[in-house]
Design a protein that fits this description.
Blueprint lengths: L7 H26 L2 H38 L5 H32 L5 H26 L3 H24 L5 H19 L17 H33 L4 H13 L1 H6 L1 H15 L3 H38 L7 H26 L3 H19 L5 H34 L9
Helix pairs in contact: 1-2, 1-5, 2-3, 2-4, 2-6, 2-7, 2-8, 2-10, 3-4, 3-7, 4-5, 4-6, 4-10, 5-6, 7-8, 7-13, 7-14, 8-11, 8-12, 10-11, 10-12, 11-12, 12-14, 13-14
Amino acid sequence: MANSKFGPAVLMGGGLLVLGAAGYLFVAIAGHTLPAVDATAVSGVYFLINIIGPGLFTALEQETSRATSSTIAAGRPLRHVVRNAALLAVGLLAVALVVLGALSPVLVDVELSGHWPLMWAVLLSAVTAAAIYLVRGLLGGMQRFSGYAATLAGEGAARLLPCVVVAVAGLAAAGTYGLIFAGGSVIGALLGLPWTRKMPHGEAEGGERLGTMVRGLLLLVGAILLTQLVANLLPLVVTAKLGTASAVAQAFSSAFLLVRVPLFLFAPVQAMLLPALTAAATRGEFDVVRSRVRLVLMAVLAVGVPGAILSWLVGPWAAQVFFGAKAALPGAVVGLLGVSTILLMTVQALQPALVALGRHHAVTVSWAAGTAVLVGLLFVPGDTLTVAVTAQLVGPAVVVAGVLFALLRALRSSSAKTPVPAPVAS
């Protein structure tokens, strides 16, 4: 494919804008065209699909991207990576479908207000996610961000436009919205395929072993599933405690979506950062790794702090206006949720460096510790919203501490092992 005249950041930002708008407008359309109970169930589908797709299958994307960029940097052919990644996608999909099938009665009864069509949408989302995240992993590793951006924009448009047509035609139904949202990923995957042709042909011997990729994938699956639980569990818990008919539960889910806007806008950073960091680590350029991470952390503050302030000031109003929430939450609740978003963005900035350095296990352990703290706090007696917000702050803070400690230790260890060039004799 021809190179675009626009830079990677512009293309990725544009694609993400379309995908992000589709997600938020999807929830907004459902909130304005469905009864409160059905709208809450559709919000539940949104969060479940985010746990399955951006959660589970992002691990496939990241491991494929890491293996692809490492293989290119080492001058090896990519055929082993493509074959192994496809096998991993099929295996991960099979496991996901079995688990979801076993949990389906509980999910339908507790989170989906008895709507079985919404459960079919969740199952469909696993199939479409396997396809699109495999394509994105290859594109990210080859740093073909025009194609990556096409998958983002195509997925978003395919999710949003049919929902608008359904709403305008007066055919709004929870199941219809859910199936459309889940199926949009297929279009994104198809649009990205042309950029996967003409892969680099390395001459060096060897290639990524399947066992190595399986180990990396399993560790990342654990880490990213825990990531999505920490990032998305609270609305499901609050809804379960207050009931799907609760106006406060719907308002909390809507506000939760709003405060995650900066996190969503920051998501492509991992896709763009991981291949660059992996290539630098493969070449032993650890100063490059440090400088890139510092730069991204500065961007986290630049994006996250204004987002948290806006969440505090206008979050409750925006949830009512844009998502049709029937209750107004305290500004402090929404603002503190915005602070938790900054913590999650910080982990987004640090995690690719650990993966690039081969420290997958440190990522998983950090997320496990944070999840354990968050879930433990949710059992503390007290006001539902107060307990939920406290857990959402403390859990991610534990993850940040663990990932930062592991990264500093990994950089010191890797730098110590890098041989110092001998001085040139005069």
